Amino acid sequence: MSGIGFPRSGGSVVRRSRPRSSALTIIAVLVILGLNYLNQQRQGPGPAPAPAPVPAPVPGQVGAPQPAENSFHVKRVVDGDTLLLDNGIRVRLLGVNTPEIPHDDMPAEPLGYEAADFTRRLVEGKDVTLEYDRERVDDYGRTLAYVYIDGRMLNETLIEEGFSQAVTRHPYRSDRKKLFEAAEVRARSKRIGLWSLPAKDGGSNSRPDSKPVRSQR
């Protein structure tokens, strides 16, 4: 219906149109929205949110990238598993126990010289990188570490070449223990180094003669 009729005097009907206020309100809202949109287009997009900060690695933290200050120069190889650095620090390789060379009136153990010569050829006079584990120092004040030379871990290499058993009773990373145990298995299978020595009973050696392991804590 276009309108509502009301009688007026004389019998004729007057038709009154509906209010147009609601239509005007809608038009006003649309105009405001359009103006806001145009203003946003002129101003361009707002500044991008700042990226979240990346935490810096903790020096010596296991699994963290090792910073440049963990690179050291090896002054001298003490024996197969101990290094003397230029700064006077002695480094004991984690998870490794090579045969002894003569010291304190004790004779050399089988393959003691060979293990020391092997380590000497690899790292003496060269730069190495140290990676630390949960314990940093042993009972003799030596720094406990995994030692890397040209991306190669010396600890694992000594075990794989048969110069040490995998020493796993000390508290260090379980993944490294598995790595060293696998290296020992490979050395055993090739019967090299300690695994080539005759056993006390004269038969083939399935493991080296037991000897005290120098403390790594």
Automatic annotation (TrEMBL):
<feature type="compositionally biased region" description="Basic and acidic residues">
    <location>
        <begin position="208"/>
        <end position="217"/>
    </location>
</feature>
<dbReference type="InterPro" id="IPR035437">
    <property type="entry name" value="SNase_OB-fold_sf"/>
</dbReference>
<dbReference type="GO" id="GO:1990599">
    <property type="term" value="F:3' overhang single-stranded DNA endodeoxyribonuclease activity"/>
</dbReference>
<feature type="domain" description="TNase-like">
    <location>
        <begin position="68"/>
        <end position="197"/>
    </location>
</feature>
<keyword id="KW-0540">Nuclease</keyword>
<dbReference type="InterPro" id="IPR016071">
    <property type="entry name" value="Staphylococal_nuclease_OB-fold"/>
</dbReference>
<protein>
    <submittedName>
        <fullName>Thermonuclease</fullName>
        <ecNumber>3.1.31.1</ecNumber>
    </submittedName>
</protein>
<dbReference type="Pfam" id="PF00565">
    <property type="entry name" value="SNase"/>
</dbReference>
<keyword id="KW-0255">Endonuclease</keyword>
<feature type="region of interest" description="Disordered">
    <location>
        <begin position="196"/>
        <end position="217"/>
    </location>
</feature>
<feature type="region of interest" description="Disordered">
    <location>
        <begin position="42"/>
        <end position="67"/>
    </location>
</feature>
<feature type="compositionally biased region" description="Pro residues">
    <location>
        <begin position="46"/>
        <end position="58"/>
    </location>
</feature>
<keyword id="KW-0378">Hydrolase</keyword>
